[in-house]
Protein 1
Amino acid sequence: MHREIAKLIIYGDMPKDCILCRMGEIFRKYEEKEETSTELIREIYTQIQNLLKLATDYGFDHNLWQNYLTFYLVTHENPFSITCEKVGANDGSVNHFAKNDFRVFRALFHFDFTAIERELGIDCFSQISDYRAIAKKELMYNKNVSEKIIALSSRLADALNEEMFFGEITDFYRDYGVGMFGLNKAFRIREKDLGEVEFVAINNMDKVMLEDLVGYEIQKQKLIDNTRAFVEGRRANNVLLFGDSGTGKSTSIKAIVNEFYPQGLRMIEIYKHQFKDLSNVIARIKNRNYRFIIYMDDLSFEEFETEYKFLKAVIEGGVETRPDNILIYATSNRRHLIKETWNDRNDVEVDNGMHRSDTMEEKLSLVYRFGVTINYSKPTQKEYFHIVLELAHRTGIQMSDEELMQEANKWELSHGGISGRTAQQFVNYLAGKAVPGEDS
């Protein structure tokens, strides 16, 4: 195995502690009789444990070794894979080196573990070659990633030569991309050493779709129109969704990402204390073949906070223009994002209401950087009842409309007032009370 791994050119740059690298080292020690059987078994079991952990995290099944190799291939970002993501596999000298690597991986796919199992008296490789997960559907994993990896792994296992292997991998890069951006739809960031940022996939993102959000049709359509223009490569604007809490602002953005994910839309959630990293984030994603929404939830600033200056510069005001594949979508309970005080209003001109204060003008200018602003106001009593009735009917609640409205009115009086969130919580409460097999 270590001799095959040593032949890798494009895909040979791997962390020393990754499973493939460690497995190659184990087989080198095995062939050169460098360690005792007990030591080899311990090291093998450590890597088997890592494979099982990966299988649990991503919901892998069947042949875990082949699943892992497939996962390695589709997450390995290199000049060849990123080029394939953008334009597909064109004719070029680099294809010769890629096919060399795929010849190696095809050999690794069908590596014979029989000899080492027989000599060490173990059967772990046989077990993971036909693995059956227990209660797989109950585990928390990204089903979208799992299905893609398992399906591709099966096709690669059936490839008759490196040409077919090459075709399967490059088609995957073209259709889905490479790295975690190709497999996941939403991410957070965390800071690494030396100011670098790392993207962390959000595996349990809400699967809500726009039709699940009752009401707010005009608001949703504005969001859809802007996002569709964005993913189709046309001009689009940054968007601010403002209004009362619980009205569906955050849910709308999550739904938009779910709707347009197949067209290459991805979301990166950034918190206020991370605004200083915005430039680094944009530098990492500006040349990728995806459309990115940088999402900021519950955006607002107190009088003493200055992070808004980072955001203002990035949106529209730095030396480098914002890349065409990036938009900023934000939600806020405040129309102007920044809390105004009476001190800010001391020198307001009464005739036309203009703020003459330079400080206040700088603060208020931030909201004008969003080309589209959408108001999610608190629903009226009638709209609230409509939301309750629609959600209850979808959930299968067996109550009359009159009774639902009466109970919904009681609920909102003691649970934070009228809002879409209150309506959803009320319906959840009713659904939780229902006993299977009994009439309500």
Protein 2
Amino acid sequence: MKKGTKILVAISFLVVFVNLLAWFMPGFSDGYRQYFFPVLTNGFGKFTSKFSFSVGEILIVAAIIWCAILFFISLSRFAFFSISKLSRSLEKGFFVSYRILKKITKPLYSATAWLLVLISVIMSCNCFILYHCSSVDANMPVLDEYSLEELATLRDYVVTKCNSLSKEIPHDANGNVIYEGDMAKTATEAIAGISDLFPALKGDSVSPKALHFSDFISQQYMQGYYFPFAMEAGYNDTMSIMNKPFTMCHELAHTHGYILEDEANLIGFLACIYSDDVVFQYSGYLGVLNYINNDFYKAVDKSVYNSHVKISALVKHDNEFLTDDSWTTVEAKAIVKTATVKKAATTFVDTTLKVNGVLEGKVSYNHVVGLIMEYYKYSPELVENPFMLASN
């Protein structure tokens, strides 16, 4: 075995070993997030934040091109070798071409092997290990379930807040929200504002970035992405504006090591509602409205649902994923049908979560309802509390 191969094998075994530690020793992952992961955020994250564009998207495009070249050259090599064996009259010419391609593919295969090992190291450090950290509710009583009455109280409270805040937000003639501040900067300040609640949020944050391929992201019905290999918090710039503050804070939570989706939702929610910016406060409540409202809608019959606080028309408008005009533009540019893209994206996200030990898959996003319930019930001093208001 050559020296380079030995190093590759050694690194591969080390990656497997570290991931096994993360799976079976939760304390290892917690210590990693607390002491080592911030170094990556403050170092590599700060570096990629200097670029106005998404480095993560560039790396994905580069990977696709690399794979296409590798596939084409490998296929050509196989074709020339096969033809040289089948046709003796052309054997010499095709065999020479095969030898040339063999010389080209050898360093290409070697580089690919190194890249795969590098990717496994980065993904383990910036993603896989973090899936096995202790839950954010580790210091609270575990809330396995909650009553319908509690869910109704929380739902009505969030709807009331949305209805009230929607009237405080400036809208243009078309009913769209107007925002003139620096949203990315406000998002990093909002995250820092709740660092006492979540210690891993302490320290500098990366700067959220608009994704260039936001139209394609919209077809996936995704609001944002955390790129572990670039330490970036990317958000869908095509979606309606009121989705952006919550999404930015959600993705920033990932860059601080809170990798589970329900926990990132909780952090995004609290960061927004604690912000001094009313648009962020509104976005925070809108960000969890669908989760809570859908849970309540499924739990009761239609007459009971209709007897509770109504969601105003303005809130419904502000809570759209994309406007009709945006969807028209997205569909006009689409190369692949949206239904196909959405199905593939859902399968990818669901599989990724399950492989990393989140057995509920994409459904785990909905667990934010239970987490919010826990924070309101067991930490009533955090924010205005719906259960205390209801009892009064």
Protein 3
Amino acid sequence: MDKTFNLETLCVHGAYHAKDGEPQVMPLVQSTTYRFQDPQDVADLFDLKSLGSFYARIGSPTVDNFEKKMALLEGGTAAVATSSGQAATLITLLNLCQSGDHIISSAKIYGGTTNLFTVTLKKLGIQTTLIDPDCSLEEILASAQPTTKLIFAESLGNPALNVLDIEKFANAAKQLGVPLVVDNTIASSYLCQPIQHGANIVIHSTTKYCDGHATSVGGVIVDGGNFDWANGKFPEFTQPDESYHGTVYTRDFGNMAFATKARVQMLRDLGCTMSPMNAFLTNLGLETLHLRMRCHSENALKLAQHLEASPYVDWVNYPGLNSSPYNQLAQKYLPKGASGVLTFGVKGGREAGDRFIRNIDLTSLVVHVGDLRTSVLHPASTTHRQLSEQDQIKSGIRPELIRVSVGLENIDDIIKDFDQALQKACQ
């Protein structure tokens, strides 16, 4: 597929192109293994001398086509699909870090990622410094240590909804000689292009907007192909890998070195593989990503404007609002729309918020975001409950905050449901 095609066309077609007599729809290949006639062909695959499917833990035709589409959508050189978004984050970090290394991360990220950094990776000897993503370039640089191996942030924070100044973070990463890893889940590949602004690696929980229908858990890592792994900080990329007969990733795989190492080392050893069925279903979701993200963004903006004028609402946070402190950054990094997630606080605090959720009808209470159905959640007691109240506030989580994932229903019906629930909550 021509990389110069517009994103809408890439969403529909991706890298799959049917030849004469082949399926028009990317086929689901539901097989764990693949047959060969010559033992040398299998040996070459294991030695990384040739590419192809031989065991589904490393890759399969359906997953491969999905990965190629994600690489096209993000403007990267290669991608690696995983069993979940959390697996994509973990594999990315372990592909870069080992015991004794250090990570700089935005504090305003998904609570599960914060817990991964500050609890699980800490047990492995990897330390993390959490910083305010709105801090200055100098403050980012000051948080670095000699063992810092990457900077991590979300393009659109979940659920703080801060818009990351990607170029500022990319500048800091470049000065430190480390890659910038951006989680682009909430913004989506259609609305935001982190690699164009200097990011080196992009990850997604494909469970969210990539799928868009709440059917398939998954994740993906996209290699930007734009980082110098030979700068002296990452010897595992430039020195022979004895587990692959002396393979040198930068020498043998060029601008796909990161993705290749993530696949043949991390995916091989950790087994966090995306199933062919989930790749097939998520690819179907991607075919309408551009249409869905436009509607999600339009509906979210209209609901945010309505809530901002409601006598029952204390505050509203949505980057698309003119009143948002992130509005200018949203116009720069999210020119097609500010995605479908907003947060707000009901007058009366947490108790009134509980009553609001109890009275919703059309809207669903689910532990999810990015579905085509409108849903709400109270993050302080769910997705971020493992954090202390102080750490929740640092992450942008107020006790009364309600997160809304605005769906694709008619906006008048969504507003009607919110109005009746707010009125009952605040009587």
Protein 4
Amino acid sequence: MSEENKDLQTTNKGPIGRFLALPTDSVPKTVFVAVTLCLVASMIVSAAAVSLRPLQEVNKLKDKQINILQVAGIYDPEADVIESFAAFEPRVLELATGEFTDEFDAATFDDRAAANDPATSVALDDDPAGIVRQGNYATVYLLRDDAGEIDKLILPLHGYGLWSTLYGFIALEENGNDIFGLQFYEHAETPGLGAEVDNPRWKSLWSGKRLSDDDGTLQIRVSKTAPAAGADFHIDALAGATLTSNGVDNLVRFWMGEAGFGPFLTNLKAGDI
């Protein structure tokens, strides 16, 4: 067959025929295979992400519940998490008044979503915790004793460290002033330095400390040296992680102060809760 006839036959095949007739290692075929593989791979990944999202949300909620159980000192790895968590009474709190509200369902209220919604949050001018916006409401968890009295309070808190926003819980005794524990469940601080907020030894330093003095003045501090108020209000800063330590100090003082849970703790001490 002459070259002219070959060219004419190729032309008559149409775009697909001409493409298939190209050599395997031609640039168009190489690009086509690469693009096709990328599209197929992205579709598989997207499908997997969508199908696994409900399971991810369940695991995320379970991890949060485990952290609440741990900070309250009642976590049993052998027990069912859902059954153990049922011991807590979640309540949605209006921060400004320090009073509970029935406007939202505590079981489904999303603190983070509310903090990002202009309808349920405010932008902060004075922002020592570095959170930018603060929700008007927060979910707190009450743990009651056999007599129905409050045994422990679990309060959520968050704030910026060195590289990330740290999310955690602080557990207070029934008087709303003595600290039982502090625990972070999400952050991206430097391993071996700021990430030592997860170190059991450092977390244990919080147990038995007090938030405020007898006059009600907030005194709790994370620092290298004890404050003038005394050791009852002091937690040693993390070695080599000054900025993370400062971030924890700022966020704890912010949330335990008047801009955070201060009104609620005042109501609690007055017997109004």
